[in-house]
Amino acid sequence: MAGRIEIEAEKLVTRLLSGTEYELVDLEYVKERDWYLRIFIDKKNGVDLDDCQKVSRIVDDELAKCDFLQSSYILEVSSPGLDRPLKNDRDLEREMGKQVDIVTYIQIEGKKEFTGKLSAFSNDSITLDDSMVVPRAQIASIRLHIEF
Length: 148
Hints:
Subcellular location: Cytoplasm
Protein name: Ribosome maturation factor RimP
Helix content: 25-40%
Largest sheet: 5 strands, antiparallel
Number of strands: 8
Order of helices and strands: HEEHEHEEEEE
CATH superfamily of the largest domain: RimP-like superfamily, N-terminal
GO biological process, one term: ribosomal small subunit assembly
CATH class of the largest domain: Alpha Beta
Keywords: Cytoplasm, Ribosome biogenesis
Main location: cytoplasm
CATH architecture of the largest domain: 2-Layer Sandwich
Strand order of the largest sheet: 7-6-5-4-8
C-alpha cells in the first residue's frame, strides 16, 4: 500500500512543483505511530522554514482532493539535510567534483566504504578521483562527504 501511495504522491508533488524554484528530492510514506507523508525539497540557494511552509500549503490543499490517501496522515515538508543520499543522475550532476562517500553491498578491493571526488558517472558506474570505478549495481548508498 505505501509503495502505491508514494508513487501517486510523488507524481502529484512533482507536477505541483514544476515551474517553481523548488525541486522534489525525495518522498516517503511511512507508518510510525501514525502515518507520515514526508516530502524533502531543495532549491538553488537552500531551503528555509518559509520555503517548507509554502510548499506544505501548496501540497496539502491538493492532497486533500486526492483519493489515494484514504487514512489520516501527518504531512512533513523539510530539506533533505547535508547527509542526504544521492539517488539519481540529477543529484550526481549537481554534486560533480565534490567529495562523496560510497558504501557498497560487497567488498571491492578489500573495502566496502570509499571516499573521493566524484569525477564521472554513467548508467553502469560511478568514478571517484578519476580512477576508482564502482559498479552502480554494487552501491548501497552515496552521500556528500561531510568534513567535521
